[in-house]
Amino acid sequence: MRYLLLLVLIALNIQCSPQKNLTKADYDQSLPKYIKTIKADELSKHLYIFASDEFEGRDTGEPGQKKAAEYLREFYKKQGIISPKSELVKDYFQHIPAGAYPRIKKDTENVLAFIEGSEKPEEILVISAHYDHVGMENGEIYNGADDDGSGNVAILEIAEAFQQAIKDGFKPKRSILFLHVTAEEIGLLGSKYYTDIQPIFPLENTIANLNIDMIGRIDDAHLENINYVYLIGSDKLSTDLHNLSETVNKKHINMDLDYTFNDENDPNRFYYRSDHYNFAKNNVPIIFYFNGVHADYHKPTDTPDKIDYNLLEKRAQLIFATAWELANGENRPFVDKAK
């Protein structure tokens, strides 16, 4: 009986053991399976909570923002995705004190979760979104479902997909930092604090930043063709990154990548208006994923029922596939256009 039990335990151990000596081809062949784990219904479930009235518009330093931070932290704990091992991060939170910048009136925090790479753990891919919004005004709650609840729930699904891959033996070769930043709405200050004051990992080791800010809606320019996402900045610093992004999309997702706002002469200047910019100014290659503005931008009517969850799913899948290639590729994106 003991011998039989031993054989069973050995068999279970073999089934659960991580695969070893995986090739690039192994990762390429497994990617479609994990793309499919990112689903519209799970994104919707998260967003109806994250952009609910309970979170009071997630204004920087206010109770609603604290509730949102706790929601993110609890998700990572349940997934078994760890907090970075750093003296600068305490249980997933990077503390930003009131007065760190003049516009930060109350203590606030970035939320960080971390997957360590198997072969090049010192090289870091950062996937970011801001989780603050503009709070309440005259008794009305500005829920910020698209801006930027959509980006945050996409990161949660992306993180879960990576974690499922790890359970199956496909640990990413490079490390991944899931970075939810605060204080974007008052000047990109959470990401600025990370890059300028307390980078948890050296910026020179940060291979790229994929930043997500509003990916759940459709703008007026695409009412006839909703299979799109705006990409901004992919070619500003690294031709490698741009080419990888294009290749991944054509192979796995096939969305229309719209570069309208990537134009240096774009009057909206979106390249300078979200958290990726604090990485880009430090010569970290970036891609900013964006759906364009709409009538509910920065209004109380930016609510979860306005989100196109199937489109949000597809955009999140594109970002995950791009992250997968960056995390597992032979070389990090080469910076050939340093500022």
TrEMBL record:
Q: Which residues form the Peptidase M28 domain?
A: 110-321
SUPFAM superfamilies in UniProt: Zn-dependent exopeptidases (SSF53187)
What is a GO molecular function of this protein? metalloexopeptidase activity
Q: What GO terms in the biological process aspect are recorded for it?
A: proteolysis
Record's protein name: Peptidase family M28
